[in-house]
Amino acid sequence: MRKSAKERGEPILREKSFELLINTVKNRRPKTILEIGVNEGYSGIAMLLEVPTAHLTGIEIDEQKAERAKLNYRAFGVETRAKIFLGDGSEIIPLLSGKYDFIFLDGPKGHYGEYCDNLISALNCGGVLFADNVLYRGYVGKGKKAPHKHATIKHGMETFLDKITNDKKLKTVVYDIEDGVSITEKLYE
User: Fold this and answer.
1) For the whole model, what pTM was predicted?
2) Domains identified in the chain and CATH numbers
């Protein structure tokens, strides 16, 4: 499925980042997962298959992708453990009332900084925030100047990284693989 999606030009998690995601989920064994940017459901399915007791809440803005994800969840037998909120993460994330053991952030790149405080609040102590694309095309953290059309994304990522690396209640590791991945553990409230 991932290969087919890639061939169709769907934005999917790259191989090394995908391996790191699945290994992190395997090691952490979360009961509750929040996924921002469901797309067609591939990463969510992989996480749910890795941890058969986990439940996933996803956010997806594109109605067609959300419907495709629901079909894919059904095809893999995880539909009873996955639900999707259709809409803009900027509107949905502040309204979330649950707490999560694992958050996978792979949504709109320019909004990571905006989402950060709400996501950290929604994370259980000992929980993990796994974020993809944090070094966005090499523009973040390497002193490389971003073209004007990518400046908002670069700024959002820099804000996000500043928050997760300088907050004393968090422990963050940034991996310089593919487009960059950060793994943040919430140590205490």
Assistant:
1) 0.92
2) 2-186 (3.40.50.150)
